């Protein structure tokens, strides 16, 4: 039996000598904030998101927050979001004073269901915020026409979906803005950071003002802004990671294909037609006692995790004034939250480790 000393982690930040050298180089340069590395990182990231304008910020949450601010959303507005996501998705909506309206997800992709979105639109709706969860693109081929029909903006939460695509079009290029995260366990990272993509040069300029106290030139403040800049140290690390992203993505996809072909007794993640899934997480569904399933894997030294055990609409900040969940009807969200388990998929997995994951999952699933 595998022991804790050789446990396979469910996620693993990739930090090599090239990243360390890049950080040291910038530190020695003395130009560490909002300098040439940030500008270069923005330019180099653009092809990943369909050649959009790119604005780097200090986190994925800041990206969401500033995108909504730049588009002018605020009190009285409603923005439709999935509840099966990290809280940052809805937090950003609340931070600008708007109200998140939760729509259910598709049973397959774990992403927001366009039919549920259509049913949630009201006269106060201003935007749809699909999340490309776990690295699988949302159904943008249906969401974009729906948004156009109702005059709504689309803000993509692409925090987990670097280089994902649908029918050949990159995520981050479908709407008014796309928002990426560079947290350490993402498919690429800058230790911490984020990127906003937009087809609109004026929106991009507004974003640059918002991230830097409302000014382009020092002491010439044009609007009220914040300090959400990305450091040059982070950008230098991000540029190194960006150069590795394509190879890492193919390794994740190859790892997923191997797991798809060999796992038994669980539901492997389906991939929609035309979708390029980049497997930020490899998320299966299990039946029966999930806690026992996870414990069984842990005993075998196979790391695993549940993202997200509590849907956002059940979190304290999103309950009603009496502390109740309210009238949300989200059966697929509730089902997913009760069944999902994410397995190791990161690109540093060896073939031996993949075989151990397969053997462990199949062994534990057979006990159920």
Description:
This protein is an alpha/beta fold and 368 residues long. The chain has 2 domains: 17-240, Type I PLP-dependent aspartate aminotransferase-like (Major domain) (Aspartate Aminotransferase, domain 2), CATH 3.40.640.10; 245-367, Aspartate Aminotransferase, domain 1 (Alpha-Beta Complex). Helix content is 38%, strand content 13%. The protein contains 11 helices and 12 strands. A hairpin with a 2-residue loop joins strand 6 and strand 7. Helix 3 (60-70) packs parallel to helix 4 (88-95) and helix 3 (60-70) crosses helix 7. The longest helix is centred in the last third of the chain and has 31 residues, at 232-262. The two termini are 19 Å apart.
Q: Key features?
A:
7-stranded mixed sheet, single chain, disordered N terminus, Aspartate Aminotransferase, domain 2, alpha/beta, Aspartate Aminotransferase, domain 1, globular, 3-stranded antiparallel sheet, 2 domains, 368 residues
């Amino acid at each position: 039996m595998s022991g804790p000393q050789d446990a396979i982690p469910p996620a693993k930040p990739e930090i090599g000598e090239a990243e360390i050298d890049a950080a040291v180089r910038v530190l020695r340069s003395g130009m560490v904030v909002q300098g040439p590395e940030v500008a270069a990182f923005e330019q180099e990231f653009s092809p990943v998101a369909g050649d959009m304008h790119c604005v780097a910020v200090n986190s994925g949450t800041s990206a969401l927050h500033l995108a909504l601010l730049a588009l002018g959303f605020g009190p009285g507005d409603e923005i439709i979001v999935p509840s099966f996501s990290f809280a940052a998705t809805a937090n950003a909506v609340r931070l600008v004073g708007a109200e998140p309206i939760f729509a259910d997800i598709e049973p397959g992709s774990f992403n927001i269901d366009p039919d549920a979105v259509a049913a949630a639109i009201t006269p106060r709706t201003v935007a749809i915020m699909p999340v490309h969860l776990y690295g699988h693109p949302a159904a943008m081929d249906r969401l974009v026409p729906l948004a156009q029909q109702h005059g709504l903006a689309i803000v993509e939460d692409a925090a987990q979906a670097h280089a994902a695509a649908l029918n050949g079009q990159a995520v981050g290029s479908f709407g008014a803005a796309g928002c990426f995260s560079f947290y350490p366990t993402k498919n690429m990272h800058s230790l911490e950071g984020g990127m906003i993509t937009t087809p609109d040069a004026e929106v991009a300029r507004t974003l640059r003002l918002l991230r830097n106290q409302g000014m382009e030139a020092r002491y010439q403040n044009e609007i009220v802004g914040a300090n959400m800049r990305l450091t040059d140290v982070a950008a230098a690390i991000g540029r190194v990671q960006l150069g590795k992203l394509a190879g890492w993505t193919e390794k994740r996809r190859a790892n997923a294909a191997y797991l798809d072909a060999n796992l038994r007794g669980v539901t492997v993640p389906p991939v929609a037609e035309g979708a390029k899934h980049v497997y930020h997480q490899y998320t299966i569904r299990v039946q029966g006692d999930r806690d026992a399933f996870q414990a069984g894997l842990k005993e075998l030294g196979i790391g695993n995790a549940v993202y997200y055990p509590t849907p956002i609409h059940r979190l304290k900040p999103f309950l009603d004034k009496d502390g109740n969940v309210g009238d949300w009807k989200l059966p697929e969200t509730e089902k997913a939250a009760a069944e999902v388990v994410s397995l190791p998929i990161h690109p540093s997995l060896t073939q031996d480790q993949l075989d151990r994951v397969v053997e462990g999952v199949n062994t534990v699933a057979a006990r159920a």
